[in-house]
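Domain containing protein
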Amino acid sequence: MPFKSLALSLAILFILQGCSQENKQEASLQISHEDFLVLDAHLDTPIILDRPGFDISSRHDPMHDYAQIDLPRMREGGLDGGFWVIYTPQGDLTPQGYEDALAHAWHRNSVIDKMLIDHADNFMPATTADDAAAIVAQGKHVVYKSIENAYPLGLDVMRLDAFYEAGVRMVGLVHMTNNQFADSSTDPDGLKWNGLSPLGKDLIRRANALGMIIDMSHAHDLALAQAIDLSTTPIILSHSGAGHLYEHPRNVGDALLLDLAASGGVMHINSLSAYLKDLETDPARRPALSALFKQLQENPLKTEAEAEAFLEARRAIDKKYPPDFATFDDVMRHIYHAHALMGAAHIGIGLDWDGGGGVDGLQDITGLPKITQAMREAGLSDEDIAALWSGNLLRVLRLVEASRALSHEMP
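Structure:
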């Protein structure tokens, strides 16, 4: 049995046995960061996998080639895997827009599948909650799939079925602007649906029936509140933050977080600096980056030379308009606040790697052991830490699996 498999088994045994305080102290000494089952709810790395010449088996530099996850650093940081994201930028709400978005989403799905084939010795697909520990026991990394932005489904929620068959087990309704399903927390034009659209409600019902986790990160508070009331399974926020600590539209206030917790849901803390604090950056930086990424969206990279030209252009922007970052302590403040407010059963980690996440002291996954150490120093128990790193996420996945089983039993 691989060492981590043995250590993980021991860790789970200590956590589940309800041992005495003396044994808990002994377990605390034995369980290291590497022994926890460490999953992230939102890995945007498929965006990077699509870059010509990128090799996930080689080590990369997050500040030079803007890649935060690869196999060497997964091993160093103890990241066992998580939900790998099929992200589609928001486009026009038109038949052509939907058609183009659907093709994009299936392409991104194929990028994940290609990684699984090309690196079968290191990655395995996961579709059930029990898969995670079984994959780690084989010394491999866990690949669940999720959708960020349901826009590619167009006006037909039954298209979600094909993605379920392809292994997708989480669906996020909306991204940076309103779509056909829900209002976004950051749409500059304000509300379109006053929360969920009728089609968005149908999508939640379909996800419940299929056995998919519903992710309401990016959604407007009204949409989140309605989703909590409507869904028959708990909602998650795959990469969000506490509005009490920083009033950004992407963050969620205490009252709504308490409703989320009461319904069994989970908020996974993100590390995107702009959602954690006011930043001191040149106002010209954002439009420069937006123009670069718009160009990328319109003209996807096809060759390694084009990829290097894109990276050079981004480095030039960083040099001319240096980024400002929040800090590791800012991330921990959100973790501690959510823990105190919602309880250990309702928090997780979704640091938005390769999607904008990263702060001073935590620029890539090699810094993950620092989170475990900080939580220990703050007095969190091994049980709490295990729940945050994967237990809560897998609990919700088990509940949606049960929901699917129940719906298929009904006449």
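Residues 382-409 form the longest helix (28 residues).
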